[in-house]
Structure formats: C-alpha cells, structure tokens
C-alpha cells in the first residue's frame, strides 16, 4: 500500500514537471523595439542565390568557393556549431534519469570471542531523477538550443564576412594592377616629355621652370609607381591568406591575373531598402537570440527559488557470511528527496534581479544592433548611388580626354601641332583612366558593402552543408 502511494506521488509530481514559473516576454519586447523600423508592406524575401554571383565574375566565383572551403576562420565557426550541438546533447541527457552501477566486495578476519573470517559483497543499480517542477531544466535546455542557433548565425556571419573580404580584396588587386600598368605608361611618357623639355630648354624655347616642373611631376609619378607595386604585392598576400595559403604564388591559383579589366555594373534600382532583409542579418539574428537566452536565464533563476524534489530507486543483490555459513538476497529501495531553500539572505532574489537586468540590457542591445544595421545599410546605399553619379562624370571626363588625344593626334599627323602637345594630351588621358579605375573599384566595393549590410545571401544549403561536411571529416 505504501509503495502504491509512492508511485501515485511520483506520477503526480511528474505531471507538473516542466511547468515554468516565468512568462516569456522576449518576443513582445523585441517587437516593440523594432516597431518603427519594420515596414508593414515589405514582403521582400532573401535571395536564394549566393550574393557574389550578381557580379558575374567567374574568377571571383572560384576564389570565393575556394575560400569558403579552406578558410580557417570558417573552420573555427563550424567547430563552435559542433560544440554547441554537443552541449545541447549533454543538457538533454541531463534531463533524463541517471542510472549508476555500484558494487563492493570485502573479506575480513576478526579476533576474540567471535573470531573468524567474514565475507561481504554488494552489487546494485541505482537510478535518480530530479523532477523539473518549475521549468528550470527546460529553460537550460532552451538556452543550449538557442546557443546552437546563435552559433549557426555566427557561421553565416563568417561566411558573409569572408566572401566579402575575398571580393573586396580581389577587386582591389585588379584595380591596383590597372593602376600599376597606367603608372608605368605614365612614367615612360614623363621621361620622354622631360627629354623634350630639356632639349627645348637647350634651344632656348623652354624655361628653366618648365624643366623643374616636369622633373617634379616625373618624381611624383615614380613614387606613385613604387606605391602601386607595393599595393599589388600586399593585395596578393591578403588574398593568399584568405585562400588559406602562404604569401606568394597567387599567379598559379589565378593564371593570367594581369590585364584583367574591372567589371562594370548595372545601376541600382530606386526601390527603398528592405527592412526584412536588414532585420534578418546574422548579427540581428544573434541579437534576437541573446534576448531569448536572457529571458530563459530569468526562468532558470526563478525556478532556483523553489523547492526541488528528486526520486531515487535501487535494485541489486547483497551477501555476507562467516566460515560457518553465508546468506545473500535481493535488495531494493525507492524514495524521494526534498530540498527547499530556507534562509539564503536574499541571494537567489538578487540573482533573479540580476538576470532581469541582463534581459533589459539584451533588449537594449537588440535595439542598438538594429539601429547600427539600418545605418550601415543606408550609408552603403548612399555611397552606391553617389558613386554611380561620380563614375558617370569620370567616364565623361575620360571620353573628353580620349577625344582630345584623338584630335591632337590628327593635328600632329597633319603637321599642325607638335609632339609635345600630343604627349601632354596622352598623359592627361592616362590620368583620366586612372581616376576612372579608382572610381570603378570604389563602386564595386560599395556594392559589396551594400550586400554585406543587407546580410548577404547564400543558397539554403551553404550553412548546413558546411557544418555537415566538417562534422563528417572528424
């Protein structure tokens, strides 16, 4: 009869197990923080293709795919996902009854009236289970599950960061190579121009100032040439590191890198930025998960203020005996244990208040992260649109310089203009090409920044495939 009451009590307590004493407020708090940022009519969906494909650059596609397969930063992010998954599995296991096997054996000799040799042994299995009456352990499991989601968001952020760094570095490398080629051409023309000015000075048709000005311009161009050579080498080193290679030998990975032109891009549409894309950035997802984790922490600390009840059960066999005889039999036990805090001088209450303050901090950080995300996206869009206007003006400048060179060349061939005038026109066109190359690279960089500000986009299989692949290689 007593055993029946114990079973009824255990089942009754189990029915209440997992009931939380804390109402989750994270969803409402985050909705309130983003109510003025989310556009009600925005139904934009995140693109299903990898973001860098819109640049339509086969070499870039190869570089990014290589980096995403070999970059150690992504290996670290994937390892953190596996770590979070393991901790989640451990927490789930902790919510199940634990069973331990215990055993002992001994032999002893006694002197005196009861002298003799005695033997004893015991072998039993003991199970214990703490009922989750107040939802504390469930909240801990929820935290571990949120940790896994946060690690996946961090991996997504790492994918966006690495791919953007590869694209930005690649186009910097192309632009610096273009500038290097233009600079070498300009230095050669400056030297030829200096020879002509010096000859004209010897003939009395040019002044000393003309000679000094030309020498100054040549010296400046030679310094610029040296800087571009350094920039090309440094960009090569940075790109090699992103591809998980030591500096040097980039030409073997990207044959024919010299002479590749900077790609042109179609203008952006005039549609406003999507609030759904911005709020879906990986860092926004992590900020959201931080709020939810802080909410679960409050549930854990509140549950810790209430009594805990544990069930225990054991079953086995034991035996003892003397030289004259021995006996053995089955042993079992079932019971429960109650642990209730009586006096802790306000420690648990203070921990609850601390977790509630941490929740408020997480909510405020969510708002701060959202404002930063919207600001970065707006800045990137402004740079793109202003860059497009700047690029168009510089293209007009280059067209005008090219037309001037063509006109002066025809005049020179007709004998109506001298070679000096032609050289000056060619140098001016060279400088116009240099300015346009800088503008094109900045325009590409701004487009990359805009894609990054919107959280990038990857095909659905990228993140999970990356984690699965690295898990299978263990």
UniProtKB/TrEMBL annotation:
One of its GO terms (cellular component) is plasma membrane. It holds the Pfam family OEP. PROSITE patterns: PROKAR_LIPOPROTEIN. Keywords: Lipoprotein, Membrane, Palmitate, Transmembrane, Transmembrane beta strand. Gene3D superfamilies: Outer membrane efflux proteins (OEP). GO terms for molecular function: efflux transmembrane transporter activity. It is found in: Cell membrane. The keyword Ubl conjugation does not apply. SUPFAM superfamilies: Outer membrane efflux proteins (OEP). It is a lipid-anchor. Belongs to the outer membrane factor (OMF) (TC 1.B.17) family. PANTHER family: BLR4935 PROTEIN (PTHR30203:SF24), OUTER MEMBRANE CATION EFFLUX PROTEIN (PTHR30203). This is Rnd efflux system outer membrane lipoprotein nodt. It comes from Desulfoluna butyratoxydans.
């Amino acid at each position: 009869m007593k055993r029946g009451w114990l079973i009824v009590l255990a089942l009754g307590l189990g029915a209440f197990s997992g009931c939380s004493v804390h109402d989750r407020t994270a969803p409402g708090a985050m909705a309130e923080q983003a109510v003025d940022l989310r556009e009600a009519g925005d139904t934009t969906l995140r693109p299903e293709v990898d973001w860098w494909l819109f640049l339509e650059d086969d070499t870039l596609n190869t570089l990014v795919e290589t980096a995403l397969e070999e970059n150690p930063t992504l290996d670290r992010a994937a390892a953190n996902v596996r770590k979070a998954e393991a901790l989640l599995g451990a927490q789930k296991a902790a919510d199940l009854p634990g069973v331990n096997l215990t055993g002992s054996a001994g032999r002893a000799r006694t002197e005196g009236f009861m002298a003799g040799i005695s033997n004893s042994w015991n072998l039993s299995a003991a199970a214990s289970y703490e009922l989750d009456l107040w939802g504390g352990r469930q909240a801990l499991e929820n935290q571990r599950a949120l940790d896994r989601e946060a690690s996946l968001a961090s991996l997504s952020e790492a994918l966006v960061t690495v791919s953007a760094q590869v694209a930005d570095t690649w186009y910097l490398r192309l632009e610096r190579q273009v500038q290097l080629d233009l600079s070498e051409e300009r230095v050669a023309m400056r030297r030829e121009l200096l020879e002509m000015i010096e000859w004209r000075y010897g003939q009395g048709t040019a002044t000393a100032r003309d000679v000094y000005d030309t020498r100054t311009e040549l010296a400046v161009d030679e310094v610029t040439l040296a800087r571009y050579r350094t920039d090309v080498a440094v960009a090569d080193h940075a790109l090699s590191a992103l591809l998980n290679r030591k500096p040097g030998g980039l030409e073997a990975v990207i044959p024919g890198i010299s002479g590749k032109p900077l790609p042109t891009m179609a203008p952006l549409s005039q549609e406003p930025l999507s609030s759904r894309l911005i709020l879906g950035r990986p860092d926004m997802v992590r900020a959201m998960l931080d709020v939810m984790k802080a909410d679960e922490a409050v549930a854990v600390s509140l549950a810790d203020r209430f009594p805990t009840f544990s069930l225990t059960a054991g079953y086995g066999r034991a035996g003892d005996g003397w030289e004259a005889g021995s006996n053995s039999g089955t042993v079992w036990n079932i019971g429960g244990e109650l642990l209730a805090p009586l006096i802790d001088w306000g420690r648990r209450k203070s921990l609850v208040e601390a977790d509630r303050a941490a929740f408020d901090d997480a909510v405020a950080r969510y708002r701060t992260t959202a404002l930063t995300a919207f600001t970065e996206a707006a800045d990137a869009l402004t740079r793109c649109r202003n860059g497009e206007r700047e690029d168009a003006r510089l293209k007009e400048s280059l067209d005008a310089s090219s037309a001037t060179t063509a006109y002066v060349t025809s005049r020179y061939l007709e004998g109506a203009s001298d070679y000096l005038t032609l050289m000056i026109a060619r140098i001016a066109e060279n400088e116009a090409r240099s300015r346009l190359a800088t503008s094109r690279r900045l325009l590409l960089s701004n487009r990359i920044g805009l894609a990054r500000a919107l959280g990038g986009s990857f095909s659905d299989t990228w993140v999970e495939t990356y984690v699965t692949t690295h898990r299978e290689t263990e």
